[in-house]
Amino acid sequence: MIAPSARLGALALALLVALVPNPAAPSVAALPAAVLEGDVPSLAPMLEKITPAVVNISVTSAAPVQQNPLLQDPFFRRFFNLPDSMPQARPRMSAGSGVIVDARRGYVLTNNHVIENATEIAVTLKDRRQFKAKLIGRDPETDIALLQIDARDLTALAVGNSDRLRVGDFVLAIGNPFGLGQTVTSGIVSALGRSGLNIEGYEDFIQTDASINPGNSGGALVNLRGELVGINTAIVAPAGGNVGIGFAVPTNMAKAVLDQLVSFGEIRRGRLGIAIQDVTPDLAEAMRLDRPTGAVVTNVERGSSAERAGLAAGDVIVAVNRDRIDGASDLRNQIGLSPIGQKIELEVIREGKRRTLTAEVAKIRVATAPAGEATPQLKGAMLRDLEPGSGRSGGGGVLVASVERGSPAWRLGLRDGDVIVAVNRAEVGSVAEASRALSGAGPVVALNVRRGNTMLYMVVR
C-alpha cells in the first residue's frame, strides 16, 4: 500500500514528466508556451496575464430577521403591549469573486447568489483599486449575474468554448476563498453535463477537482490556454470545505445569459409547449432506438409552437441546431436559454425514421393573480406561478411577485420574492391552487413561506 506522501510524490513526478517537453517529440505535441518558463514547467507566465481579470466582490445586504409568528399577530402584540414597529434587518457583509469579461464596458460576471439581496456591491481589483458596481441583471435559474464598473485599464479574460472541454482536461480555479484574497488552485475536469443536483433551475455543470471553497463563487475556471471555460458556482462539502467535488457553470451557458442581460436587463426564457422525459434503456428498446439518449415527447399543447412545428407525442428529440441532446434536462437548457422568437432546428426520430422540424421559441406564459381576491387579509400582494426551471422552485410554491407597501399583505410581513409553499399545511404549486386554498381556508390561515434559505410561518386572521 502506498502512503499518501508517496502517492503525492509519484503524482508530482508524473506531472513533471508530462510537463517537461521531450526534445525528441514534435513541437506540436508540446504544451502551450504559457506553461513553460525556461526549463522549469510553470503556470506563472499565464497566470500573471490573466489573474488581473479575476476580482473580489464585497456585498452589503440586509440580514433576515428571525421572528416568532406570534409577534406578527396584532392581537398578541396589543395584549402584551409590544411596539407596533417590527425589528429592522441589520446590515450583513459577505464576499465572493467575479470575472471581467469586457474591459471596455467594465462587465463583470459573477454568481447570482453572491449578490442576491445586495444593497451595495463593491468590486476590488488585483491592484487593490475598488469600485462601486452597478447590477445590470441577474438570473437565479442559472445563478449568473452581470455587474458593471466604471474603470480604466482593466484586463478581461478571453471566453473559451466550454463545449470543447473533455474529461481529463487540466483546469485552474481562481477566486477569493474564505476571504483570504486571490488564490489559484489546479485540477482536471472530472465530469461534464452534471444535472439533477437541484442547486439551480438550469443545470449543465462542469465538475472539477480543482479546490473550490466558500468565497470562490463567481470566480474563474480556466484552461491552460488562459481561456475562461466556467464560472465557479458550488461545491459538495459535507464537512464545510473542499472535498474535491466542485461545479462550474459552462461559459457557453453563461454567455447566453450575459447576452440577454445586456440586451434586456433580464432573461426572457422561451418554450415550445411540450412535456418531455428522458429516454430510458427500456424506452430505447421499445422504440427500437440505437441508444438511450435524447428526450421523448410525452405531450404537445394545443396551439403551441411545438404543434405548429409538427411535433407529436412519441417523437424523440435527439438534436437541436445539430447539437446532440442527451436527455430531458439538456433539451430544457437549450430551449430555456434560446431567445424568444428564434427559430430552431429539431432533429427527431419518429417510428424509427429521422426527420428535421423547425420550431419558433415562444414566450413562457405565467399565471398571475392578486392575493386579495382570495382573502382580503392578503390584499396588496400579487401572486405569480414560478417559471419552469426556476432556481426558487425547489419543492414548488407560488411566488409573491410584488407587495404594495403599507397594504394588509405588507403589514402581515410578506415581501417581494417570498415563495408561499403551503396554505394550512397543504402544499400549493400554482396560483390556481393557492387561490383555492386561501378562499376555502376559513378565518385563520397559516402560511408556510420560503424567503431565501429561511422558512417562515405567518398567521393570517
List the helices and strands and how they pair.
Layout: H1 4-19, E1 36-37, E2 40-41, H2 44-50, E3 54-63, H3 74-79, E4 90-102, E5 107-111, H4 112-115, E6 118-124, E7 130-132, E8 134-139, E9 144-148, E10 170-175, E11 183-194, E12 205-208, E13 220-223, E14 228-235, E15 246-250, H5 251-264, E16 270-271, E17 274-278, H6 281-286, E18 295-300, H7 305-309, E19 316-320, E20 323-324, H8 328-336, E21 343-350, E22 353-360, E23 362-363, E24 368-370, E25 381-385, E26 398-403, H9 408-412, E27 419-423, E28 426-427, H10 431-439, E29 445-451, E30 454-460
Antiparallel strand pairs: 1-2, 3-4, 3-6, 4-5, 5-9, 6-7, 8-9, 10-11, 10-13, 11-12, 12-15, 13-14, 14-15, 16-23, 17-18, 18-19, 19-20, 19-21, 21-22, 24-25, 25-26, 26-27, 27-28, 27-29, 29-30
Provide an overview of this structure.
With 461 residues, the chain is of the alpha+beta class. The protein is 18% helix and 36% strand. It has helices at residues 4-19, 44-50, 74-79, 112-115, 251-264, 281-286, 305-309, 328-336, 408-412, 431-439, and strands spanning 36-37, 40-41, 54-63, 90-102, 107-111, 118-124, 130-132, 134-139, 144-148, 170-175, 183-194, 205-208, 220-223, 228-235, 246-250, 270-271, 274-278, 295-300, 316-320, 323-324, 343-350, 353-360, 362-363, 368-370, 381-385, 398-403, 419-423, 426-427, 445-451, 454-460. The strands form six sheets. It has a seven-stranded antiparallel sheet. Strands 24, 25, 26, 27, 28, 29 and 30 form a seven-stranded antiparallel sheet that branches.
